[in-house]
Fold this sequence. Notes:
Blueprint: E1 3-7, H1 11-24, E2 31-35, H2 65-72, H3 80-92, H4 106-128, E3 132-136, E4 142-147, H5 155-165, E5 170-174, E6 179-182
Parallel strand pairs: 1-2, 4-5
Antiparallel strand pairs: 3-4, 5-6
Helix pairs in contact: 2-4, 3-4
Amino acid sequence: MLETIQIEPSFSAWRAEARALLERGVAPEDLLWSDSSSGQDDLFAATTTVPSKVQESNLTVPKAFFPLAETVACHSEESRWALLYRILWRLTRGRERQLLLVATDDDVRRASYLAKEVRRDCHKMRAFVRFRKVGETDEGREQFVSWFEPSHHIVRFTAPFFRKRFAGMDWSILTPDECAHWD
């Protein structure tokens, strides 16, 4: 029977669950990943709560995996969690330490493609967000707002760019899923 792992749609939530599952030795083919962004719950799945406390491990993950995984985690495709866990499993338990260097591998190629789509969406957000003045605070600071509809979950990933670039103004970026505010 498959274990259903329900997580919040974030890299940190996936990482915590993946670490616990890896420690327990749960193979990727025994899991069904789901997150709250899909809006659908499987009524018939056996949901398992993974213990949050993980013992020390001698499993090591190549540093190159983390930037790729953080980027792929922003993609809107729900299968991203299973893909990331499968790659993680292969890097650690499967002893394929050089896996990320094999560009022809199906999992690596798919993860690279998803990361490329996320980076493209981030670029669009940086290029096309335009702020409009909507008012002033009691202290006389101008307030700005912008609307953007990203294809992926990139608001938190891209917000540091706007914080750095527009640090001297109060702004909000509104999207259908998340918002970013700076004052």
